[in-house]
Amino acid sequence: MALVLAQTGAPTAVVNRSVRGFLTGARERRVLLGHGGPDALVTGTLVPELPHDGDLDAAGSYLGSGRRAIASADLDRIVDRLAEHGATGLSLIGGNGTMAFLHAIDERASLRGYGLRVVGIPKTIDNDLEGIDHSPGFASAARYLASTVTDMVRDHVAMAGIEKVRIVETMGRDTGWLGLAASYHLHDPRYAADLVLIPERAFSLDAFIADVSARLSERGRAFVVVSEGVAPELTDSPVKSQNHTRLIQGGVSRVLAREVSERLGVTARGEVIGTAQRCSSALVSERDQREAEELGRIAARWLGDPAGPSGVMASLTSEGAPRAVPLREVAGRVRHVPERWRRSDPRSLDGFQEWLTPLVELV
């Protein structure tokens, strides 16, 4: 009798906390760990070796990770391997794709009469999971962006004489949660971005150029935040493709900077912040750490309780109370930024900033 834990998708700054919480919640039960993402489940490479002291204290991912397009035959192999290991419960740490994967395993196990219990543990910097107010990983990424971008605005103010426009790109293929987080400025209101572009708003290059031109006329410089998923037609980056094996490295900020330079005749810089926003431990949110660990602990307890929830994702309400969300309500779904926060002017986003304040812990 064993509980199995694995992770798919990219790391976050706090994902190891969920591993720690799971191991704590499992108490004396036997735990098997899958290292390397879905491949570990397909091949049945599940090991009983537990982390050494310090393995779960840093960013990155102790379990490793990976992506794989899962075929029907793979699901049968996974069920077979889990049965061979005597697994009674399975938790996967990840986002909406991971929850779809776990839901498929649950359905295949049920179809075959295998009484497997499954509980998903949320993890994504994109904050695009249904059924949870904010996902573990997001608060730390948001804190990093809010702090770093404020410093970049300060730098731009100093350099505005020779660099009129700076365009900074965050992660976020389908949603603008991270882009909006990068425009957070309650901790330093004088150094806010001038514009923020998110995928939820239709993009027009002509309108964008006009907005930048207006900012230049008003103050002589313009600082723009853009989500990587804005205007994918302008780049060769496959931001909207199924992301099983292809690297997505962004680049829309540089394309937009070139357009600004050519159309407005001013100097413009495009920058891609990159993976630092998801892995930096220097600016990790303490609340994010606590909640990531708590959700791992909840998942293990539910798996070990025959009367506990199964076929669900472990979640927390905005007040911090545990909540079981059916996997079918999360699997493959994208939680977009709500309409009320789809604004391009950071100074018109008071409601978003108030919501984000207790998560980023900068004020």
Automatic annotation (TrEMBL):
<keyword id="KW-0808">Transferase</keyword>
<dbReference type="InterPro" id="IPR022953">
    <property type="entry name" value="ATP_PFK"/>
</dbReference>
<dbReference type="GO" id="GO:0046872">
    <property type="term" value="F:metal ion binding"/>
</dbReference>
<comment type="similarity">
    <text>Belongs to the phosphofructokinase type A (PFKA) family.</text>
</comment>
<keyword id="KW-0479">Metal-binding</keyword>
<protein>
    <submittedName>
        <fullName>6-phosphofructokinase</fullName>
    </submittedName>
</protein>
<dbReference type="InterPro" id="IPR050929">
    <property type="entry name" value="PFKA"/>
</dbReference>
<dbReference type="InterPro" id="IPR035966">
    <property type="entry name" value="PKF_sf"/>
</dbReference>
<dbReference type="GO" id="GO:0006002">
    <property type="term" value="P:fructose 6-phosphate metabolic process"/>
</dbReference>
<feature type="domain" description="Phosphofructokinase">
    <location>
        <begin position="5"/>
        <end position="296"/>
    </location>
</feature>
<dbReference type="InterPro" id="IPR000023">
    <property type="entry name" value="Phosphofructokinase_dom"/>
</dbReference>
<dbReference type="GO" id="GO:0003872">
    <property type="term" value="F:6-phosphofructokinase activity"/>
</dbReference>
<keyword id="KW-0460">Magnesium</keyword>
<dbReference type="Pfam" id="PF00365">
    <property type="entry name" value="PFK"/>
</dbReference>
<keyword id="KW-0418">Kinase</keyword>
